[in-house]
Amino acid sequence: MRCKPCGADAVIEIRRHRVAFCRDCFLHHCQEQVRRAISSHRMMGHSERVLVAISGGKDSLAVWDILLDLGYTADGVYLGLGIGDYSDTSRTYAEAYATARGAHLRVVDIPTEHGFGIPDAARATKRVPCSACGLSKRHLLNTAALDGGYDVLATGHNLDDEAAVLFGNVMQWHVGYLARQRPVLPATPGFARRVKPLIRLGERETAAYCVLKGIDYIVDECPMAAGNRHLRYKETLNEIEDRSPGAKAAFYFQFLDQMLPVLDDVAAAERDLVGTCSRCGAPSSAEICAFCKLVEKAAPTADDERQIG
Ligand code: Q46
Ligand code: ZN
Q: If residue 53 lies in a helix (H) or strand (E), which one and from where to where?
């Protein structure tokens, strides 16, 4: 197999683009895909300060690395979720990357700052861990971006993630979620702008990017992910993609082109509903926001566990 742009020996083939690349042309391809995503969705400008949500996994480290290479002023923020060894290890990878790259990483540790970990939250709410986790991440990453005075919060959601979320939202016809599933969520009062620069890259590509660039990342999946719906949707889409390369990208990008404009009114109506949490001041349609309610429930559960343990 030959690299399409330069003819050297190829190290990776991307079936949906019907191309193969050598190392250098592949790294350039990844950078180009991010540059195109940023410019076609007007995600951010070079004069803006970017905060990148870092989990220690391949996607978040790849997006941070590419943004820095593209010349953006980008700091990272790591959220400690209190998921035992998994959290400790993922933090090590995030810190090691920041040190090696000379980049600035902020750390927000949920157990230290809010008195509970995600497993406590799952027990307290009697719901799957990912629901408390997603809620905490949205709230705390947004707070970190606003408090730090950043213009934009970037996350490492890739094409596979976005297609799987879309698939789930369509399966349940969550019209409100569909209306908000955008590559760019503009800043509104109490919310920083949120962008997803990796939407044009699949997870196989972000993994290859890290390996070829020598970036170490946590390979293990979060232990709480086992059996979650999101993973099942990913598997289903991968089966379809195997048979029809390009199907996943078509599903997602056609949604952006054809469907999102139709949902603009739904998104605007949802934004109008928002008030302010009486405890923390975050945007909320209820008197107390979902995160403050979670802290109220989960912190005592964590205390009980400590006493028993
Ligand atoms: S970290 Fe959190 Fe994920 Fe773990 S608990 Fe679920 S949402 S699976 S990206
Ligand atoms: Zn609140």
A: strand 49-54
What dihedral do alpha carbons 222, 14, 64, 261 form, nearest 10°?
A: -90
Is pLDDT at 228 greater than 90 in this prediction?
no
Q: Burial code of 7-28, b = ≥16 C-beta within 10 A, e = fewer? A: eeebbbebeeeebbbbbebbbe
Ligand 1 is surrounded, with C-beta below 6 A, by: 81, 118, 129-130, 133-134, 222, 224-225
Output the pTM of the full model: 0.95
**The pair of three-digit structure tokens given for residue 52, joined into one six-digit string:** 């990148």
Confidence of residue 227 (pLDDT cuts 50, 70, 90): confident
Determine the pLDDT at residue 308.
Answer: 65
What does each C-alpha distance from 77 to 58, 157, 218, 283 come to in angstroms?
A: 15, 15, 16, 21
Ligand 1: distance of its center to the CA of 129 in Å? 7
